[in-house]
Amino acid sequence: MELKTVLDQVNVDSKDNGRNFTVTNRIQAIKRLLEHTDYQPLHQGNLCFIYGKKPVKNQSVILISSHIDCVYDRLFCQELENGQILKGTFDNSLTNACVLYNMIHERLCENVIIAFTGNEEENAGGVYEVVRQLRKWNTHIALAIVLDITEEGWNERQHFTVENDLGIDIKTGFRIVELLEKYGDIYGFTHDSEPDESYDYDEKNIPCFSLCIPTLGDMHGEEGVLARANYLSTYCDVLSELANMLAMNPDVLDKVYYLDYEEQRNGIMLCGIYTNEDDCRREEYISIKEHHGQLELPSLIHGKPVRKIMDFCMMGVGGIKSLVIPSSFESLGKKNFSQWDGLKKVVLCCEGSALREWNFAYCDNLRVVECRNLSIYNYCKRLPLDCSSPTFGCFDRCLSNIEFTLRI
At the top level of CATH, which class does the domain 3-252 belong to? Predict the structure, then answer.
């Protein structure tokens, strides 16, 4: 199916009242276009529709977000200059058509999901619904690519622009720039451009950027805008290349979380979540509630495994009698869990290599350490180790009182 054919079908009315869609012509067109593809509607909500090739519960994904609400009274699309120029009401049917073209022609990886959102022109209700639903599924949005049209880049004859890069770490940014190098001067970059859905995803602590199609004219005007038809194929290409590169890159999808203990009150531990150990950019807070003195650290946050605990951040915590450390942890961080005076039992599901210096030292009441795999059991049985070991001081001043058990 040609891109122009897709555009003709989706360039129809779509409106909402801030609570739900009231005009669904475009939604119905999208459903028809995807009817015979591998894509399935993962969520059909009040202000968003999420499509993917498979369920994404407890998965990490790249999200493509393209809003489908519009402000026009009459929609049209016409060809000018022998089809080289398109004129029409293209905010935001033009990017709807491009992502649909890639979906129909199987140009996106299976862990790239697509959200068609409403309420972008008003209060971003569609974005908020997308985020709520994915977090309900424990799905981690590693990065969101927002699609829109722009007033940037037309005079420079640019095929596409990258705008509003927000919350993207240095490594991911470098990979994006590296991929775009081959496009030379046919694209533009604007760090701080007009607000779009990227601002709303950033508000929810989701790394994102906008990939836009340069147009000429008032994008909200009834007379429409101009777009260069022969540049749209480049836009489709770069969209699929960026999404797939990010989706297949472990540096992006396999970001790890680090816990940094903040405080404890009323049985609730507040922990700052970080995605980068070097700059420690705080993502958000989570609360871990203990139940009758029993505490289990989270193995997943937003669908991603928790790998490490920051050094020296969980010392001297009181009121916890039993602690469970999941298998996802690769490092427990230096001196963590030391001086937990009330701690009597620890369940270790992690590997032996996760232990660090002075873990559980001076836990005077610790009596039982239950090991859930041979690796951690054998490691503990060899304690104490000399000062050259990364686990020097582990269980110091309480080792002789502890019974190590193996339960697989």
Answer: alpha beta
